[in-house]
Design a protein that fits this description.
Helix content of chain A: 10-25%
Low-confidence stretches of chain A: 250-255, 257-264
Mean pLDDT of chain A: 91
Distance between the termini of chain A: 14 Å
Number of strands of chain A: 18
Shape of chain A: globular
Largest sheet of chain A: 7 strands, mixed
Order of helices and strands of chain A: EEEHEEEHEEEHHEHEHEEHEEHEHEHE
Number of helices of chain A: 10
Structural class of chain A: alpha/beta
Strand content of chain A: 25-35%
Largest interface: A-B, 45 and 45 residues
Radius of gyration of chain A: 19 Å
Oligomer: homodimer
């Protein structure tokens, strides 16, 4: 099969990569479309030392299942990316995503979605409703990461919410929270991205225009910059909550990735402010697929507006290049004939 | 009256300091005993630029009240230290402790307890039950800061809890949590302080002996060192909670203060770990007095074991010196005839 392979130096498109063989209770999935995420770009730069096929945002068709349960065979699915060992306390509690020996599709120890086929356990898969197009379905994974904010923190109707960062993830979080009627302002640095949010009725501000008085009960930090948390601390109200979405793969500022792996990159934080103002900081990563799929099916979140370009998979090099341009939002790869 | 006055250079015992005049709805309180806190030591080194009478842990007698309500006149009381402006949104919500224009007894813009008299609003005062001695009552304020951990975070019976730091605050938190039957281990660097905890049936470890696998669902950071949070991140389980009690008044390691003011002291933190492991960090400061007073009245927390020395107020200089010795826990000042 055709696959993009990263050998530690640079990604190569290989025509004769071995089709993966599903293990017990896994499915073989034929990829229909995949999305390029900031993590993929970082992986192509050596992030996490990953070797293999990158890519973790996808929609595909279940080609074959190695299990007595065949209910998903032939179905169109999206898949959660973390695969636990199945034998530890986290897996026993259904927290595979925090299993210490987990693999992650296209990120850690498991070939990913920039290939004609991939494998995932059946329990990671969710059937895509008919009302959701392939293009939209690819957004399930990042949209789930946006919903995760509301899974972790109780945001009240009376709260003022600031979302820092107008990248894909910041925009998706703004779409989700604004659609729930929450009092949201999105802050960023890109005129075109802020304009996109504004055209969806979302209040926007340029970074730096945010007021530290009276401040915000809830601040979502999705800038991708280590400085983002300090900005959040400056504008959050005492007893407020900061939801931390940014991981940092490199020293230069980049867009946060909603499912990035672990890197040891320390940022200097004013801890005394956290204590004195009794601020809560909540780390937040991948999220639940069902509400994301439901929102897509009901057209409650306009993810199509985030698509900057669609490239055939054969032109993945151009897709990666385009993905790194400043005003680009989501770039999709099309595997369909 | 006699008062310890800090002029920005060093504290002086002044014999003829002006007795404070209570404002509307405030009480004039004759101090019986006061406790020396790490914050007082920091203030004497110039922390926060405070000028005036330090001291914020006390028990006293209500001498006179400027209010139609006279129910507290003549009573023995302890007092919450933060005084809000009374006119802002935080005060309107009963969050005077987070009022942006607040004063704080002996810490910020308000003369404190190292004097024969002090003033506080009536609503800050709590009558001390007869079963609580003066010595014990002085611990109400730091004990309330220990209880604040349980006000902010739901610690479950099945959680493994690590408390980092065997100073006064770490010990009080360990006493409170262990007494509730929680599965607590106290980690520190001082043999005598760990032995004190062990003699109360609390599991102890030397710092560095804590296991990062399987780790702890809840970690209370009370080391007073900026590195403490990174240790906490290393040993907390994914999805776990870190309660941050330490503020940092100086670069060298010191004991945390439960009610310290604001200083801009940044510590380098691995934010990616917070995100990937979805850790919650909760800043925690002063706490509620009623559960602390109840615990003291019921002798559920043995605060007397934390008293290293009692000095007459006239010998406050010796008290400050003693307070800074390595093995010292709480030093009290006695104002009684």
């Amino acid at each position: 099969m055709k696959a993009l392979f990263f050998d530690g130096l640079m990604p190569h498109l290989i025509e004769t990569y071995r089709v993966p063989e599903p293990e017990e209770n896994e499915a073989l999935i034929r990829v229909l479309m995949a999305g390029v995420c900031a993590t993929d770009i970082e992986i192509a730069k050596g992030y996490k030392g990953f070797r293999g096929v990158p890519g973790h945002e996808f929609v595909g068709l279940v080609e074959r299942v190695r299990s007595p349960y065949q209910g998903l065979t032939g179905k169109r699915v999206v898949g959660e990316i973390n695969v636990g060992c199945g034998a530890c306390e986290f897996c026993a509690k259904g927290m595979e995503k925090h299993c210490l020996s987990r693999t992650a599709l296209g990120i850690s120890e498991r070939d990913g979605a920039f290939a004609e086929f991939l494998t995932l356990p059946l329990k990671n898969l969710w059937e895509v409703p008919e009302a959701v197009s392939d293009e939209e379905a690819v957004f399930t994974e990042p949209l789930a990461a946006a919903f995760q904010v509301l899974e972790q923190v109780h945001v009240k109707p009376s709260d003022r919410v600031a979302i820092l960062g107008d990248g894909k993830l910041g925009l998706l979080i703004a779409f989700v929270m604004a659609r729930q009627g929450l009092n949201v302002v999105l802050a960023g640095k890109h005129a075109s991205k802020l304009a996109l949010a504004a055209s969806r009725g979302i209040k926007t501000k340029y970074s730096g225009e945010l007021q530290n008085r009276p401040g915000y009960e809830v601040v979502v930090e999705a800038t991708g910059s280590p400085e983002g948390l300090n900005v959040a601390v400056d504008i959050v109200k005492p007893r407020g909550a900061i939801i931390l979405k940014s991981t940092f793969a490199s020293r230069k500022n980049g867009e946060p990735s909603e499912c990035a792996g672990e890197v040891d990159r320390r940022a200097p934080i004013d801890l005394s402010r956290l204590v004195v103002d009794e601020i809560t900081v909540v780390g937040s990563r991948c999220g639940p697929f069902p509400p994301a799929l439901e929102a897509l099916a009901a057209k409650r979140v306009d993810v199509k507006s985030l698509i900057s370009a669609v490239y055939p998979f054969g032109d993945v090099a151009s897709a990666f290049e385009r993905s790194q341009e400043k005003e680009t939002l989501k770039v999709l790869l099309d595997f369909r004939p």
